[in-house]
Amino acid sequence: MQKKKYTVVANWKMNPETLSKAQELSKGVEKGLKKNSNTKVILCAPSVFLPILTVKKSKMISWGAQNMHWEKQGPYTGEISSKMVVGSGATYVILGHSERRALSETSDMVNKKILAALKSGLTPIVCIGERERDPQSNYLTTLKQQVIETFQKLPKASLKKIIVTYEPVWAISSHQVRPATPEESTEMVIFIKKILADMYGQQIVAGINFLYGGSVNPEDALSFIVHGNVSGLLVGHASLKAKTFLQIINSMPQN
Ligand code: PGA
Predict the structure, then answer these.
(1) 1 pLDDT tier (thresholds 50, 70, 90)
(2) Which atom in ligand 1 lies closest to the alpha carbon of residue 172?
């Protein structure tokens, strides 16, 4: 099958409230997807819903978890392993989301999770982004550190399997200071690519899929693709209504 040109990921977070609402939402999305679309659609649902949501195989939708532990098994109350994620029918996993990092998840931990996910054959969707912007631009140093620690010591050949999402925390709907602009996304994706190129080489970085996340909505989705230096989007609150999410998916360029 030909590789899709764009990627739109739904991060449902701790939503919807019930399994039946989750089934309704995913069915609604699937019904509205266009055949032969060049956009890959990934729904990252609460992990307890995944085994049921993934029963009906769909060519149009892929499934992802929102977190996992790096160990294979053991005394980690409340955690799930990469093998469990695979067993749930998911093929993707969001790692290092700022809402996980806010609960004391460090970049070193995210790094271990990336390695474990890759070993299990999952595609990690790794989130990177600064919490705030200070006038002295110290956030650039903090972000650089975050990128270096998160992506350290990964097997070069596996880098192209990772999806990197630039998600400024200050632009996420629930913590929003202001929306980010596509131009800011471009600047920061260039910045992150440069750091990764210094670590792994230009050629490797050219094969990585970059997304933008943070308050994406039907009105600005296309402009992030056209002007934001990314080939896809990570969508939070706007993915919780099938109609709105479909507007975002269907706004991707059709070429
Ligand atoms: P948002 O969330 O689209 O609601 O800002 C995005 C995210 O946190 O992944």
Answers:
(1) low
(2) 5
- Terminal CA-to-CA distance of the chain, rounded, Å? 16
Catalytic residue positions?
A: 97, 167
Instruction: Give yes or no for residue 214 CB within 6 A of ligand 1.
Output: yes
Take residue 251 and report the two structure tokens written for it.
């706004």
What is the residue type of 35? Answer: K
Residues 159-180, mean pLDDT to the nearest whole number: 94
Domains of the chain and any CATH numbers: 6-250 (3.20.20.70)
Cβ pair 9, 211 in contact under 8 A? yes
- Burial of 49-81, coded b for 16+ CB within 10 Å and e otherwise, reads bbeebbeeebeebbbbbbbbbbeeeeeeeeebb
Among 255, 178, 244, 184, which residue's Cα sits nearest to residue 217? 244
Q: And the tokens for 134?
A: 């200070």
| Residue whose C-alpha is closest to residue 163's, from 136, 143, 192 | 192
Local confidence band at 255 (pLDDT 50, 70, 90 cut-offs) = confident
**pLDDT single digits (tens) 4-31:** 899 999 999 999 999 999 999 999 999 9
